[in-house]
Structure formats: C-alpha cells, structure tokens
UniProtKB/TrEMBL annotation:
PROSITE patterns: HTH_MARR_1 (PS01117), HTH_MARR_2 (PS50995). It holds the Pfam family MarR_2. Residues 33-163 form the HTH marR-type domain. One of its GO terms (molecular function) is DNA-binding transcription factor activity. Keywords: DNA-binding, Transcription, Transcription regulation. The keyword Transcription regulation applies. This is MarR family transcriptional regulator.
Length: 180
C-alpha cells in the first residue's frame, strides 16, 4: 500500500509530538491547578488552628458548621458535601460527630418527610458566632501581603474562574437553586 504525503506528514508530526512529550516536563510550580490546590491546603491548614486546636473540630466538622452557620435555614448533608466539595462519606462522619456533641441537630424536611435536614443547635450557633470573627481575622493575616486593590483583583479573578466552571458564587444563588 502506497503512503501518501499526508500520511507521511501525520506520522512525522506524531513522532515530533512524542519526542517533545518525552523531553518536556510539567512544571508543577507553574501549573495553576497544582498551585490552587497547594494554596487551598495551606490556607485551610492555617485556618484550622482556630477551630482544631482551640475547639477540637477537624476540617470536615468545621465545614459542616460553617455551611450551616451562613445559611438562614436547615439543609441536607448532600448540600454541605456539594457546597464544600467534600466527599459525602467524610461529611457523614462529621455530621455524626457533631450530632453526638450536640452542635447540630436533625429537623424534618417538610417537603419530603423521608429526608431530614441539618441545622445548628444553640450550642453550635454560639460556637459559630465565636469562631467566624477569629477566622476572618486569620484570613486578613494571610492576605496581609496584598494591597486592598490586589485583594479586589484576586476576588475578581477567582470569580471569573468560578464562573467559567459554572460554580455558584453567592449564598443567594445557592439558596435559590437549593444546591451547590
């Protein structure tokens, strides 16, 4: 079978691309997903000092409390898992712990009696009200290396990325869709 010039050109291009792939390496320190993941892990760790060391809450438990704390009404564990991008089994374990510690409670879903929703107890609300100013202060410390203008730019840029990924960006939007 005779090879055409387009077959030869395709084989040559494929060989060239394979050669480049063998020589090139992905520089993780310039790869945005790696950088965002690393930053998220470090910031989460820095914030966890406020609730882990002082109140014995792990990161998933804090995520449950934080999600319930910013909402005006009860929500499902599935909503929390979607909102925080945390695996549902991890959220389920945190919910069990928080229920046992009387920080959250189950309430019946009026629309679907087979489902229960979660809300903060009085004790849980008091903990949330105590923690969130500390976390906002810690956030300010982390962002102190940025000017006010740079903070605005960072927020705008993150919003653009979130929008491009079709992520819900506001509590109002999340409440309207009843999902994250």
């Amino acid at each position: 079978m005779a090879r055409t010039s387009s077959d030869i050109a395709l084989k040559t291009r494929e060989a060239d691309e394979a050669s480049v792939r063998r020589k090139a390496r992905l520089d993780l320190f310039k790869f945005v997903p790696f950088r965002l993941n690393r930053l998220a892990a470090e910031v989460s760790s820095a914030l966890s000092i406020e609730y882990q060391d002082r109140h014995g809450l792990d990161i998933p438990a804090w995520r449950v409390i934080a999600t319930l704390g910013f909402r005006n009404d009860a929500c499902s564990a599935q909503y929390i898992a979607q909102c925080t991008r945390t695996h549902k089994s991890t959220i389920s374990r945190a919910v069990t712990t928080l229920l046992n510690e009387d920080l959250i409670e189950r309430v019946e879903n009026q629309a679907d009696r087979r489902e229960f929703r979660l809300q903060l107890t009085t004790k849980g609300r008091a903990l949330y009200e105590k923690l969130f100013p500390q976390l906002l202060r810690r956030e300010d410390e982390i962002l102190a290396c940025l000017s006010a203008q740079e903070r605005k730019q960072l927020s705008t840029l993150l919003g653009k990325i979130e929008q491009s990924l079709d992520l819900i960006q506001t509590s109002k939007e999340a409440d309207a869709k009843q999902a994250y």
